[in-house]
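Could you please review the protein record set out just below?
***
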Amino acid sequence: MENNHTNWCQSVTGIVIKDNKVLLARHTYGSGKGKLIVPGGYVEYGETPQDAVKREYLEETNIVVEPTNIIGIRFNAHDWYIAFKADYISGEPTSDHDENSEVIWLEIEEALSRHDVPDLTKKLIQCALQDDQGLVPLPYQGNPRNGPGYLYGINKVK
């Protein structure tokens, strides 16, 4: 849903895999219209990318997720897009009947071979399948006045 709190230069998604199936939504507008894509959207001002992934998934699919590793970053002169691997927590897939017309669990191999799944979605699914890959959250002591900080790095550092 569009509002004046949206940061149009920052967007996120999450790849959720459960029982060898990936959660996809059939998009209803723009260049993704009619395609099965991973849910996601823009970050709101004052929101972390992790919180944006959680909100977008709940709004668009009725699924509660927990973002884990960063598995991809797409950026250009206009904006950036962070892709997380995200754990399924709870919920039954339900379309929001606005941004998507259906939400489904699709076998991974089928998703990777279908013509109605865009190349970006396929590449992100493949990234999510790489065990223990991607940038992982690393705790650090930051400035408390700035709120919680997040550092993602190549491997876990103690």
The chain has a mean pLDDT of 91. Strands lie at 6-18, 21-27, 36-37, 40-44, 64-75, 80-90, 100-107, 136-138, 151-153. The chain has one domain: 6-133. The helical segments are 49-61, 108-113, 119-128.
